[in-house]
Amino acid sequence: MREVEHELGGGVANAGRVTRDGDYVLRPSNPHTGSIHTFLTALRGTGFEGASLPVDVRPDGRECLRFIDGDVAIPPFPAWAQTDESLASIAELMLRFHSASALVGVDSQWWSDEMADPAGGPIVCHNDVCLENVVFRDGEAVGLLDFDFAAPGRPIYDLGQFARMCVPVDDDVSSAPLGWVVRNRPARLRLIADTYGLDRTGRDELIEILDRSIERAGAFVQRRVDAGDQNFIRMLKEMGGMQRYERQQEW
Known about the structure:
Layout: E1 6-7, E2 19-21, E3 24-28, H1 33-45, E4 54-57, E5 62-66, H2 84-104, E6 123-125, E7 134-137, E8 140-144, E9 151-153, H3 155-166, H4 172-175, H5 185-196, H6 200-226, H7 230-238, H8 243-250
Antiparallel strand pairs: 1-2, 2-3, 3-5, 4-5, 6-9, 7-8
């Protein structure tokens, strides 16, 4: 018998609107879906299998992608998702993703600019690698999800966005509602840099990018709230308002 379509948890922008139908995931499409599907298809052609594989866009406007089997951590984040081993595995996956993306290159496709590297860059980056957008198996990262904010940029900027959300580079008050209990955040940031293979210059750039990334993340959320997006309004209220980004930047 055919499986019944059921909702998948997690996320903010598309919360409550992502479902699984057997071997497929159905989620809202957007103006950049065509560019994203073209990129992801080419990415798979390089031999990289750690990202969603698009199928098509359904008549109802939803995009259809192959389901990646595994575990996805949603708040409050479980202990296994907060281990140094899991963090390092995401950094390793991102390194392989960036290497594959470099083989695809950047063309004239249309990309979102909401979370893109303001300096631009030579490869298509994910720009939103948080725990909820990673598939794990036995605590090891095996797949990246949700490429809605993908855009050309620098790998180091993509790495900085990931570090901000998954170290996390955040104060205890702001990170507690998400279930974070990690203590030595500087050591976790160093682990990302070591795993990715950053040199001295790359580490300096990472620190600079983190500061700017927090500011841009706050501005992104404020735009969504000002536009009346109820998911972001609810999320911001739960996180203590825009003061959470001020605390984060001060930390």
